[in-house]
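Sync notes, pocket subgroup
Present: LS, DG
LS reminded everyone that the earlier model was apo-only. Rerun requested with heme C included. Inputs:
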Amino acid sequence: MRRIRPAAWLAALAGFFVTAVTALAYTAAQADAGQQVFVTVCAGCHGLTLGGGVGPALVGPAFRTVWTNAAMLLSYVSQNMPLSAPGSLNADQYRQVVAYLLRQNGIAPEEEPLTERSAVHIRLR
Ligand code: HEC
């Protein structure tokens, strides 16, 4: 039983930490830049309105349930997209395009930019 205690303590601490940093998201400037990336690189397969095409839709409840947090989404996109040339964008562009996906999925921008670290705290479901 003693082993459970640290886990419970950590869970409580994690809960507090997530609450304390909910202001972390992405900036409107990142999402604006990300829209340009999306239109140029992604829209051909995912649709201009993100409704899907060759690739799946990138908006809506079904999309959001795929991702626990924005870090998973950022990691997936950085490693796998664009499908025709994975990893071909730079790190800033990947953050920007994910910021755009967050905005289109109803997550509001904040003061702090999206980074790999802050993305962990942005929940999609
Ligand atoms: C050549 C077509 C193509 C391009 C260009 C492309 N994608 Fe995709 N994308 C796909 C396909 C097909 C899938 C489904 C892959 C799978 O299920 O294994 C996918 C899957 C995804 C997923 C996962 C969706 C889910 O619900 O599982 C995301 C997120 C995504 N793409 C984002 C992007 C972004 C952002 C870009 C631009 C940087 C991009 N894609 C460019 C074809 C494309």
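DG: The chain has a mean pLDDT of 89.
LS: Residues 55 and 83 are 9 Å apart (CA to CA).
Action: DG to write up.
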